[in-house]
Amino acid sequence: MKNHSLSSRFTRLGLAVIMLLALLGAAVTPAGQAAAAQAGGTSAPAVSALPASEAASVTAAVYATAEFMLKNGVQSDWQAIGLAQAGYKVPASYLKALEGKVSEAKGVFARATDYARITLAVKALGGDPANVAGYNLIEKLYNHDAITGQTLNNPVYALLALDSGSYTIPANAKWTQSKLLAEILAKQNPDGGFTLTTGASDPDMTAMVLNALAGHKQEAAVNAAGQRAAAWLAKAQDKNGGYGDSSESVAQAIIGLSAFGIDPAGAEYTKGQINLVSKLLSFSAADGGFVHTAGGSSNPLSTEQALEALVAYKLFGTGGKLFDFSGTPVKNPQVSVSVTVEGPNGTLAEGSVYAGNVLTALDKTAAAKRLALVNEAGNYVTGIGGVIAGTFGGYDGWMYVVARGGAWIYPSVGMGDFALEENDRVVIYYGGDNTQVVDAVTVTPAQPQPGQDLKVQVTQKQWVWNEATFTSDPVTSPAAGVQVTIGGKTAVTDAAGVAVVAGGLPANKYTLTVTGYLKDKTPAIVRHTVPVTVASAAADRPAFGDVKSISPWALESVYTAYDRKLMNGVSEDSLLFAPKKNITRAEFAALLLRLTGNEPSAASSAGAFSDVKAGTWYYGTVNRAKELGIISGVSAKTFKPDGLVTRQDMAVMMVRAFKLDATSAGAGAGAGKFSDEDKISDYALSAVRTVTGLGYMSGTGGAFEPTAVVTREMAAAVAVRLP
User: What is the pTM of this model?
Assistant: First the structure.
């Protein structure tokens, strides 16, 4: 794939060689494999018995499940661990919240498994378990008084935690790795399996023990015990390839066997042509989650364990283990970015994906939009969607730029080598010597009113080779002769890059589009869009009959929300806004759909909830919002459309709708700023910190009031602040 505007100098041999090197990017690697290559581990890489088609299904499931979790917010330490080991960037707010939890507890937890779980999560997210908010969790663990006399989970997870990094454990510690191993091995049943307390062996506990023993299998006694446990797992597997009806036992078996270096897709773990990996995949749900039993709906516990199992299996292929974080952190973790693929005559694809580099972002976008890629040797893209390099007979081909922090980056490396950051905007375009990108679009007046002429100034940017410095230097100039389209009107820029949209537009929210398509040539400019809002002047504002009831702080927001058709009046007889009326869950879902530019689902679409009936005004709205992951139900089957929206629930829905991340704008400052933060529910804390840190919501008198219900004027004030 080309990533530069090419000139005649390209024919010079030296430059041609340099450009070729820049164009070549590393082949796209599935997230789990990328994570495995960096995760460390001492075992030699293993050869999987899984057919190529099923291996591809594992990679696809990792993507789908990880992104399902991220869309719904990271809700547990196990989810955070699975995501990090899958090669995804977990929001920094999660580690910060975890540190806050330890600080609030003053480093004291009743159960050893709490210390172990938090240790594993902190380490997976790049923190130091020996110094979490000033507390040494490693010391708390190896000197814990209640490892024995309870369940086998205690020594198992304590050992996993102590093995997860290079920690200093004194010889006189109450629990060294050797002592923990002795405690675990003493609990092995005669048949080779293990159980939680006493009694018959069970697959979950046996697999968990196998996972813990993996780090010490070089010891003869440990290896022998592990082999017996693995043999028990094979013998206990039923004719349907699993362990009863649940997915969790299958997931744990995959984690344990993979860690111990045994292929869970091997012949020993295949029953009737169904191996443990294919069995786990059979529990996947259409939304990206995993079900507890066949035919059920996505279950959080099942989903987090399935992701860990799939990642563990991918790590098996490189000799890594799920809970071994001793190696180098994942390079270029997958983050949320937007991707646009611009062809010579129009847009081929747009969307948001998680990716660590541009090549992965393109690969995922193309797969989602069913665009064929020509990627010979896996590192040089010459065709997208049937458009092949050289179509117009010159040095035309596929190129890319990245927008970050309001500025263009013109990479000098191949797609596979360019590391993406959260909220980057990737533009992959077909161009040639003449093709430039939009540098800036300025609309005058800045706040246009209905019917007012719009003056649009467009500047463009290209990168010109500088032989003196051997670099490509940016050059900005007026974009002459390009098309500016807004609200159904089109104007062409003059030599100064200026276009005038005569007669203006009605009050509304618009998308202004700049294009430079040319017949039988590469485009003069890459398609570019900017939002424009046309708002009524004060004298033309709607005369709400209840204007005196609108709070002064909300008045401008109410007018703007009404002008932009984000919110309507509440009466057909007279113009009333009802500012103090509480907004319902269905109404707020509709508002978020309008804000994000999404249309409701068709009236014939399948219902998402039993209490959202076909024929109601909100039927398609709620179904679409659920499909997009903006909302969730109050239970698995009910939504409560007429229920009220609390401030903390509004924060959660906003974060989901706009994929907001605290790290993207330093929103970590939202942490600890409210006097009633302890009253914010766990599921909403990260979202509240994010939206307040980004300035979309605020508190009153130092308090956030998370359970206070949202009124229509509150919703209007927030709506007009959102991007």
Answer: 0.68
